[in-house]
Design a protein that fits this description.
Helix content is 45%, strand content 17%. The chain has 181 residues and is α+β, with helices and mostly antiparallel strands.
Length: 181
């Protein structure tokens, strides 16, 4: 599954302009990440850096931000104020998602396993039946990690894909979870 790809570019804009110290809303980055990068620029240290060092510093900052962000997401899923309205595991999450009851989902980036997907209505689950439980059409095998992002887009559910090494608890709970509406 794709990782977030636009963040580094957004941070570079912050650094290059040096004008947006708090620009979470403007850059799409959370306030903290934008502040950290903006602070680096504000110290005047970047003018001595080569392009490679500059790039390396940005990438390091982004990696740190992503890890913090990923850890925080898992904490929110298990212990956040809305953790009572969540589902965990592949089967429950897929089911709730396709019922239109999910408002946000988080999955590890190495989700394993196969699912069956209906060729007509697109329903996905892990049951072995070769016919769709919704419309009775044929179903094909697919990789879960391949069908999940388009499925989330279809139901307009934001899907966060996070590094497995910071999501041990989520991995043990099936590698995926979601917040219900
Ligand atoms: Zn179907």
């Amino acid at each position: 599954m794709p990782r977030r790809g636009s963040g580094a570019k957004a941070a570079l804009v912050v650094l290059a302009t040096g004008t947006d110290r708090t620009g979470g809303a403007a850059t799409g980055l959370p306030g903290n990440a934008a502040c950290n990068v903006g602070f680096t620029a504000g110290c005047g240290t970047i003018e001595h850096l080569s392009t490679a060092e500059f790039q390396s510093r940005i990438e390091s900052e982004m990696r740190k931000w992503e890890r913090d962000h990923d850890k925080n997401l898992v904490d929110q899923l298990f212990n956040g104020p809305e953790s009572a309205r969540t589902v965990l595991g592949v089967d429950d999450t897929l089911f709730r998602l396709q019922e239109g009851l999910v408002r946000g989902a988080v999955a590890i980036n190495h989700l394993e396993g196969g699912v069956r997907q209906c060729v007509k209505c697109g329903w996905i689950d892990r049951t072995p039946d070769s016919t769709c439980p919704v419309c009775g059409s044929a179903r094909l095998l697919a990789y879960l990690r391949a069908v999940l992002p388009p499925l989330a887009r279809r139901y307009k559910v934001p899907l966060e894909v996070i590094a497995q090494d910071v999501a041990d608890r989520l991995s043990k709970a099936g590698g995926i979870g979601a917040w219900l509406k």
